[in-house]
Amino acid sequence: MTSAVASVRTAELRGFRDVQRLAYECAEAVAAQLRPGVTEREAARMQRRWLHGRGVRDWFHPPFAWFGDRTAFAGFRTPLRFLPSDRRLEPGMPFILDMAPVRHGFTADAGYSGCLGPHPLHDRLLADLRAHRDLVLRGMRERRSPKGIHEDVHRLMVRQGYTGRHRAHPFGVVARRAGRAGRRRTRAPLGSGTLLGSGTLLGSGTQPLRGLADHALHGRRDGGSPPWSPYRLPDHPPGPGLWAVEPHLGFHGTGAKFGEILVVTDSEDREQRAFWLDDELPHVRRWAEEDAA
């Protein structure tokens, strides 16, 4: 264990990296199977089954899927609008697959943006997300507060001509503390709950909203670090630990996002003070390939 990660054990970093990679492997595998006519509920079920087959039984939140203008959260005026719907995928339509599996007590919150065919606007959104990843990392290394980083991200989105659709998330969360999961997570049987298409609002269906609400309450009650949202932003630098970050851009009914873990340490070395847990993720590889081209 190096001094740069004195507050985060190397074995723990490996556990978080493994589950994050597993989530993105799931997203790529499911994205490759999407065809015209598939519904959001079916895509959410595909994610869950893929992860269940690889040992995932618990969730920070079960899988989501959003198609078309729902990738930009168009018309999302109530939290229940976030749950997967009967919207069917069409050629040229953007989609987002989002999941937060827990395995061996480690959790990740992955967001995968894709499109069923060419879509220049969607390509532009994905390319412009790169600046937000760089901006968040730079802010963490400079020990800026979540409030300051959130304001920087918002200003960048405005300059790019976009709206920040993470503000439409339940509780407006753009980042949350990522820690070891307890045993209270969703353990609904495979095939049950709204996210799997049965139509009920019980069981796993409302767990995503309950999980975020519990986390926000825990941060306030215990004096810890609440999620970053426009409703309550700490004005002091985040302490050492892991953060699940997920900026979300929207423009004219098209949305794109990523979700990944940022490590913050107590190192005095600026480069080691903060770093992304893994650079071998689909959106990062895409940017590297664009640079090479």
Automatic annotation (TrEMBL):
Biased composition regions of type Basic residues, renumbered to the chain: 177-187
Alphabetical list of CDD domains matching this protein: APP_MetAP
GO molecular function, one term: aminopeptidase activity
Peptidase M24 domain boundaries: 16-172
Keyword line: Aminopeptidase, Hydrolase, Protease
Pfam families: Peptidase_M24
Keyword ATP-binding among record annotations: no
Taxonomy, superkingdom: Bacteria
Region Disordered: start-end pairs: 177-202
Designated name of the protein: Xaa-Pro aminopeptidase
Protein species of origin: Streptomyces spongiicola
